[in-house]
Amino acid sequence: MTDAMQRLAVLQGRDLPVHGGRTLAYVYDSGDPEVDRVAREAVAAYAASNALDPTAFPSLLQMENELVGFACGLLEAPGSAVGTVTSGGTESILLAVQGARDSRPDVARPRMVLPSTAHAAFHKAAHYFGVEAVLVPVGADFRADAGAMAAAIDDDTVLVVASAPSYAHGVVDPVTAIAAAAAARGVRCHVDACIGGWVLPYASRLGRPVPPWTFAVDGVTSISVDTHKYAYAPKGTSLLLHRDASLRKPQFFASAAWPGYTMLNATTQSTRSGGPVAGTWAVVEHIGDDGYLALADRALAAVDAIVACIDAEPALRLVVAPDSTLVTLATDASCDPFTLTDELVARGWYVQPQLSFGDDGPSIHLSVSAGTHPHVEEFASALADSVAAAQAAGPVAVDPGVVAFIEALDPAALGDDDFDGLLAASGLVGESADGELELPSRMAEVNAMLDVASPAMREALLVAFLDRLQRPVRGSRA
Prior knowledge:
Blueprint: H1 3-12, H2 33-45, H3 58-74, E1 82-86, H4 89-102, E2 111-115, H5 121-129, E3 132-136, H6 146-152, E4 157-163, H7 175-184, E5 188-192, H8 200-205, E6 222-225, E7 238-242, H9 245-248, E8 253-255, E9 263-265, H10 274-311, E10 316-318, E11 326-331, H11 337-346, E12 352-354, E13 363-367, H12 376-393, H13 400-408, H14 416-426, E14 430-431, E15 437-438, H15 444-452, H16 455-469
Parallel strand pairs: 2-3, 2-4, 4-5, 5-6
Antiparallel strand pairs: 1-7, 6-7, 8-9, 10-11, 11-13, 12-13, 14-15
């Protein structure tokens, strides 16, 4: 092994595991080592290829078209449907919003109607593209309120959004009613199925109840679905599908306004590595339709088992029954959710804490994949032990003086020195004796402090945190 690869192995040893089914956020594990082998070899074979020009690398064009074709069949798309391979769900969402905006040049101040549970990528798109996000509160079941969304559509609305499912709660919005309301006003309707797009169709085939959400629903004009999630493909691919080519056309960018080659892009990227495309194509070819049905069955069986684990713990409750592979749980007053998260992490199970939002308290998010299924008994044991440990530790208390201090701050008026002080006080960052950045090993106190902060202050603190993390390492050999 070369020095570089030895060092790489050491660095990777500090990361969360991507296999073994115990990382219940960020990664999606099929549980099949052969899938990983196929993906690695395909990515390596195409790592130097460039999808910028489809005439230069026609094999990548062929693979992209075949991936779109597979997805069209999965999502009940009409024969007129087209699609694009993107770098991930956020880029698919960005392009859906940008295309909707540019399809309506007559609208000076474009707006899009979102349920309050829509993914934050839509807010990113609003920020980038100058499209106002009109947020509509959801119902008690955390699903979009179709009537309220219909009432929010006006002459400046260029896009209406639904989720299948929403990330934070794992439930499918009433797409049929939302899409009908959008169609009645001549507005595009995008379904964000980045999480559910590759598993919900199989859930339906397995006899599980799934609300309608695909292109079979009249009025749905585009759908985003991530292949690097439940298609179990390598990181870096998603699909954006449109009902017909005319809907996709505003997404394209071309420029001959310079002396070089005429730039022509279907995505926000120009140069695109062929590695993720080839890796995704190879994985989809390898697993196939029957294979995905079996993987969906295992993932959903794991969800059922985890739901039973939660039901067996009096201190825990489901926030809402899941429609897919996302599980959200909450705790009672005897069990601090942030301490529970730390205790699960300490036992080798990475789960994702979600902070309070509006009238809803903090919760814990789990993205369950097929690779988790063989380990659900271990999870049940870890969950029971973690609940007991969290109850014994008691609630995490944030000093009232710190709360008052945070509430009095204006995040827009703080300077770098103020943020450095806040980061140190919050425990988000510290320095070791040799001056190296140190991250906290347990996050309960940090999350409790963030939970009492306003959303604007959370954003400001975490932006400062990211800025502090991303600093050059002087003298690096890289």
